[in-house]
Amino acid sequence: MASGLESLEQNPPDDFVEAELIEPRSGSEPIPFNAPSVVGEEFYHIADAIHRGQLSGDGHYTHLCEVWLQEKTGAGKALLTHSCTAALEMAAILCDLQPGDEVIMPSFTFVSTANAVVMRGAVPVFVDIEENSLNICPQKTREAITDKTKAIFVVHYAGVIADMPAFKAIADEHNLYLVEDAAQALGSTLNGQQAGSFGDLATFSFHETKNVISGEGGALLINNPHMQDRAEIIREKGTNRSQFFRGQVDKYTWVEIGSSYLPGELIAAFLYGQLTRESEIYQQRLAIWKEYDRALTPLVKPLEIQTPHSPTGHDHNGHMYYLLMPTLEMRQAFINSMKQQNITTPFHYIPLHSSPAGERLGRANGSMDVTNRVSDTLVRLPVFYSLKDQSSVIDAIKWALDSSAAN
Questions:
Q1: Residue 195 sits in which domain range?
Q2: Per-residue pLDDT averaged across 244-273, rounded?
Q3: Which of 40, 213, 241, 263 would staple 82 via disulfide (CB 3.0–4.6 Å)?
Q4: Are 262 and 295 within one domain?
């Protein structure tokens, strides 16, 4: 028997050794932190979507993408959205967050994780991250639970899945909703289980900085079967329109709160071209990640610079390679040195707990020492599908580290 995806496709129209002085890279083309790439038949699918005559959401390519995600992750249902932010907002509604409810999450995350909660009137409770994985700490999470806690939003940082068995046990013990913010983690696994398949709900991002892209774009995965029908309604502006098109009701009407969370078909068509090459993208990014690790780990250890760590059983997707510098000053010197060589190496999140909105709309629980240190010292290296001159980046890093250490 053909799979759901097949049936939908049947009718498509060397270690560094200190020696001679390293010269800075100069007079070369800039190397950005990220560059979006066309990897397959994206243009064909876009043309086909136009030919099919439906450019609004929930068309042929939207369904192809959703079935692909369901089969990849094993999720009960996948719904394409116009962004991961939209998917997080849907998750907050599905968790029935009310004013005064509390949601535990890391402070070291993008603002959308917290915004989705605040927009329902609930309070984000920020807890610290682990030293090794940079993911939210289960023990700190347990210590933050109160009688107002309604859900835990777990972020899989840099494509490394958080300790989901521990979070599942905590959520079950306290009857809490469990949501995976898996924006960076498509294709990552923990003991063979795919990101997005652990929580009641999970969200993915297809922003152009992610592994698989559509410019903007996202998806909501619904693993809790009791939420599936309602998720469709919320996504369709609060109407039962999807049930109407399946012939389950004779007319559709407004039945729930919701918004327009669907992407257009051109976005879905581009995304489908990427999804069908996801394995190739995965392998390419992982090869880049491994080459950084091979070349840089022996170099940075004497400088007390940390490189990424994946705990046992975690297979990440090569989404991000970062360095954790000993000090903020050394990080800034490194970034400036790389900039002199036309290579962009940005830092990452400003902690939400210390942001103006975070101080006003949320609260921190316990020490945030690891979060604060990581925010001050983390720097990201270029990782993208079409990166061809990685050896030049590595040479530039060697010179920048010499330069920044000297400062």
A1: 42-275
A2: 89
A3: 263
A4: no
